Amino acid sequence: MSDPNGLIQPGRPAPGFTLTSTLDGRQTGPEQFRGRPVVLAFYPADWSPVCGDQMSLYQAAPVFDQYDAVLLGISVDSIWSHRAYARSQGIEFPLLADFEPKGEVARRYGEYTAPGEAARVLVVLDQAGTVAWSYVSTPNVNPGADGIFDALDRLAADRGVMAR
Amino acid sequence: MSTPLQVTARLRDPVTSDDHVRGPADAPVTIVEYGDFQCQFCGAAYPNLHELLRQRADTVRMVYRYFPIANVHPYAERAAETAEAAGTRGRFWEMHDWLYDHQDQLDPVHLSLGVEQLGLPPDELNAEVEGRVYADRVRRDFVGGIRSGVNGTPTLFVNDVRHEGGYDLPDLLTAVDAAANA
User: Fold this and answer.
1) A51 annotated active-site
2) Percent of chain B scored above 70 by pLDDT?
3) Is domain A19-163 annotated with CATH 3.40.30.10?
4) Is B147's CB within 8 Å of A146's CB?
5) Are A45 and A73 in contact (CB under 8 A)?
6) How far is CA B46 from the centre of its chain?
7) Which class is B29-180 in CATH?
8) Which value does ipTM take for this structure?
9) B9–chain A Cβ distance below 8 A for any pair
C-alpha cells in the first residue's frame, strides 16, 4: 500500500504535492517554499491523548524560525478535524489534510500503515526541494524534534561551505 | 545523512551548577526531569519521584529543568518563571513542590498566594516575572530539552539516557536500580 521502495531517502527529489490546508480551500505544498528548508511531519491522527503530543511540541519549539524553516504537519484527518485540533492545541503552522484520495501523499513518501494512517515520518527538504534527511519512528513513539534540528544544522553548515 | 532506524535519545546538556538539584552530589544515579508545572502527567509522576528519592536516598539525585508547553498550558511559563524567581532566592524546590501540590491553582491570583505562603515577597516576584527576567533561562532549558530528544512531558533522563518506561514507582525503581548496577 506504500511506495515499494519504502521511506523516501536522502538525495531524492521530493515528490511535489499540494493539499488543502484551510477551510476556504487553500492549497499548500513544499514547492511554494523553495529557497527555505521544509520540514514535513507526517503523523497518524489529530487528538492524541497525551500532553505535549508531537504537533503541540513542534508548536512550542521556538527554534524553527532560527533556521528560516517551514514546518508542515500532514495527516489523513479532514480539514475540519485539523481546525478543531489546531485551535485546542494552539497550533499555528499549517496542518495539511491528506484526505482525498486518502493517504496519497503519505504513500508517495513511502509510509502508509495498515490502520489507514500515515506513520510518524519526518522528512527534511533542502532549499532546492531535495530530501536531506528522513526518519520513521517506531509505532507509538513520538520522535521529538532533535533529529529535525540536527538535519537543519547540517543543511546550514553545508550552505556555509558552498558559499565560500 | 543516513539515519539508523532507532536512536536512543541522550541528554546533551550536562548538569551544571546552574541546575536545580536535590539529593547527594555524589549519587551514582542522576535523574534529569524535563517538566511542565501545568501538565497532569508531570503532576502524576511527582509523588512517585518524591517517594523514589526517599527510598533511594543514597543512590539518586534529581535535577529539574523547565519544559513549558505554552500553547497547551497557558499558566506553565509563568509557573516556571516563578519557580526560577524562587530559585534565585534559594527556594526553588519549595516552589516546585508547591506548584505540583497545587496544579489546580496556577492562575496568577492563586500563584501569588502560594508565593506568599512560602514566605517570599509576592509583589517583588511578580514584577520580575512580568518583566520576563527569567524567560531566557526557561527558554534555554526548553531548547536544550528539544535538542536532547524531549518528546513530551514529563521526559526523564536516567544517567543521560532517555527513560522510555512508565512513571509509576515500580517503573522508576527498576530504572534507577538498573542504572545503579550498570
Assistant:
1) yes
2) 96
3) yes
4) yes
5) no
6) 9
7) alpha beta
8) 0.86
9) yes
